[in-house]
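Researcher: Here's the sequence for the chain we discussed earlier.
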Amino acid sequence: MKEKADIGMIGLAVMGENLSLNMESKGFTVAVYNRTVPGIEEGVVDRFIHGRGRGKCFIGSEKIEDFVRSLAKPRRIMMMVKAGKPVDELIEQLLPLLDKGDILIDGGNSHFPDTIRRTKYLESRGILFIGTGVSGGEEGALRGPSIMPGGSPAAWPHVKPIFQAIAAKVADGTPCCDWVGANGAGHFVKMVHNGIEYGDMQLICEAYQVMKELLGMSAGEMHEVFKKWNTGDLDSYLIEITRDILAFKDTDGRPLVDKILDTAGQKGTGKWTSVVSLDLGIPLTLISEAVFARCLSAMKEERVEASKVLHPPAQKFAGDKQALLDDLEQALYASKIISYTQGFVLLHEAAREYQWDLNYGGIALLWRGGCIIRSAFLAKIKDAFDAHPQLSNLLLDPFFKERIERSQQAWRRVVSAAIMHGVWIPAMSTALCYYDGLRSARLPANLLQAQRDYFGAHQYERIDRPRGEFFHTNWTGHGGDTASSAYTV
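Model: Thanks. This is the structure I predict for it:
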């Protein structure tokens, strides 16, 4: 074992521990340290060194000063701690111990504005900073995650060999890790990844709801459907684990999924994605609906009470079950296209707003392996951006245009059947609404602008005059000719 470690890891919870083991397995010596709460987390480093890390190239330290001294220069320190205040507190604790040119890496789910702020602050102190998204959960961290680094460009050459060694690889050996962009770009891309993850999970849950509530299928029957879907266009990690979940039995032999309380948790990254989309004026309707779906699921007591007095339509499904299942596969695929479309539109607008030079095809590659949203589908997204690097909307790519047009009748039949029979599918239906809105050359916003001008003199543009020229009408005859200023938030 080397006298000095190649990289240091602070935080030995699930992700930090498994990333450390991954790094060591690729030939790197890793220094490990864990902030402790007296009486609660004491002895974490010692248990790791004499447990999963026994006989391996780890240098354990119980004191942060010893941890920093154990690192080769320039020091590379990865922090896997809770986002928010704990990251700032740890940075302040480390700063007096570091030298100029040392590198701090935040591998948690930090909000990208914090990463922008921290990059600027640490660079002013002579320290390089990386904010990186890491996706793949416990298994990915150990066997190869998707890694999305951004921050101080000068830091990248120093961590690139380590990050690309531990990252997941696609079929040709290309690592699912590359430099994303300056300051908060890495954490922004991870945030959008998580937003798409919210959308994908909700869409799958809605397909499950249609099978369960509309078609009356058992968990075992649904398992067979997802098993089949995972061999076709919908092949993905989330479809794969859904297949396995539906087959899993509790100790009494009954499906475990049926015994799980229907209230969903969330850690905030989906909400951040929706809020940023509002700030940037991007209609991220599907992901936002997925966030609201989790919020509605959390209102368990209210829903139980409402179910006693609010009743569904009386009619039962009497159509062709297999035909609807075939339609459902197409509807799920089409809705998935919308989820990714909206996510990449948001990335495109963020690049303009924050002056990031994002490689959209490269981002799709980062997500093709290791991460939660990995799927065969992403190869097509990479192809689309390789052909047209500044493609403004995936639906304008020939492949996605053809696939969504081919699927839309099936998609409409599923949404219609669900609505007519009172089955809840908010994300799949709002995805269809986005498609119909985007393909409409004329929307009813002309009436909306007339309303705004009527009650607030907010002005409007005319189709027979140049864009940017605004008009106000005295609709009532006694409102005057003074207009409000015209602006868009």
